[in-house]
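[job 0412] stage=fold_complex status=start
inputs:
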Amino acid sequence: MALADARAICPDLATRPADQARQGAALASLRRWAGRYAPMVAGDGADGLIADISGVAHLFGGEPALRDDLHARLARAGLTAVSAIAGSRGAAHALARHGGGIVPEGALTEHLGKLPVSALRIDHATAGALARAGLGRIADLIAQPRAPLARRFGPGLVLRLDQLLGHQPEPVAAAAEKPHFSVRMTLPDPIGLQGDVMAALMRLLDRLCEKLAAHHRGARRVRLEMRRVDRGSVQVEVGLARPMRDPARIAALFAKGVQAIDAGFGIDALRLMATATEPLAPEQTGGGSTIRHKDALADLLSRLGNRIGFDRVLRLLPADSDIPERSFIIAPAAYSAPAPFAPRGGPPRPIALFPPEPVAAVSGHPPARFRWRRMGFTTLRALGPERIAPEWWLDDPAWRSGLRDYWRIETREGPRLWLFHTPQVPGAARGRAWYVQGEFA
Amino acid sequence: MTTLHDPDQASRGDAPFALAPARVHEAEGRGRRAFALFQAARHPGPLFWVLPAHVPELPLPAGLPEGVAERLHLLRPASEIDLLWSVEEALRATPVGLVIAEPQKPLSLTAGRRLQLAAEAGGTTGLMLIRDGAGSNAAETRWNCDAMAGPPDSTLHRWSLRKNKKGTLGAWVLNWNGATAAFDLVSEAGERHEPAQPPL
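[job 0412] stage=fold_complex status=done
writing structure:
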């Protein structure tokens, strides 16, 4: 039914847009829970789960008891579900979407014959064509000779029919569980001393790092959550400059955070999780000085990043642009690798670059005398101009004044400055449009 | 004891501007950034430049000496305390080649001494780019650096050593173009601060 029709029938209808991502997440968590009934549980379409319960049902007291148990637990969680148990995956799928129930062994044809052909997981066009041919129910299809059926409606229909009747095997392929990098520890008595917390942390870290090593991954962020006896909780989180799984080095980063926590009446449970991980191949241990230096540098970047913020520990990377401000990128050092710069060439560039500052009291072109930062300068030598045009594909507010003619001005006073002139600005001829943007060595 | 006339230092070829290793030095004057880059080109290994977040002057990779931009790490702490802490941590780390910092306030004697101890512990050299007259007593050497006008095709710098705990003072004019580690000393007529070298 279309939403407009539904609204016409019931004007007070409350509607919500479908949220596929959250539905998928909810189904995934339900799939994890359903693992209590069978070792193999997989998603079945957007709205279903399929479990292979071969050899499992007797543990729950038979198939009807298992199904009752499932429904009772789902009802207690507030979920309405329809379920079916059948000898083949296709049959269970069809029956679950048409009333549910249990198909006894060897009675597939009798129980499923009365279902419409659309239950066969075939597309809408094939179902319509079958209906036009007068084949509305699965029982009608089973009675038909197979060769003409396959010729007219394609091999897909016969395959689905065979899967329904169990002639064609169709295993339940459960997706592998994603590794979960989290360990916890509960204590019989609460602890409150910093040394005790660090000792517990070391034990947790050993287990977490073993887990990371087994999956060839390294942690980028690690969070320690501590539950206090008064049900409060405190947490400490550290970031790492590069993926690692060395317990001692991670523990060193926690020392400062653990010092600052308020243990209250004591801590009786700890939970340590790697909230962000990255692939990390096994490395040779006890390497030479190069590896030790790399590790020490990564440790330094981690320590710095955890105190002043990872967005303040930066690295320069090359960028492809003639605009001086955009000829390099400043990137967080923890999330980038050093990249080589092109060798120097072309016109000279200053060592320091800053936002353009206007100069005052300009006389001449290029300026023979000017004032900048409350100092007077006299030009000794001027080298230029070097014309740089703005990038038309990027609208940079700083470059809206158009072209810039850059000059290297050597002053009698010593400083060698990088001045530019904007010839396209009205009034540029009167000497208003001079700015300093850099200083040479 | 390391002095400016130390023969093994002179044999390294960059005397008299070599900074004593594992110590913290200071540079003041308008040309202090150029002096810092000159030293950066001479120190192998990762470089750390601690620049307060509000300072607008950024190093432009295309203008830095060869091989410096790739090795440079920029730290932009928000406060002076964080700045000093970052410098101390970087000095304490062994693999770092040179730590350059631009403190905005004069260093207290305690802070200066702490930095010296950190530099000794990590074997790292530090260089503080200070405001004029904001030097610390704990500094090993203090340099006054200024750019100088000169004849065409020259980039003259006047670097004078104003304080030296283990050696003599001096002033030099040199021609360094900022692209490589090479430089030429320019003798200034009538002003000689060193004894003349005996003829070879």
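[job 0412] summary: The helical segments of chain B are 7-11, 32-42, 80-92, 109-122.
[job 0412] exit 0
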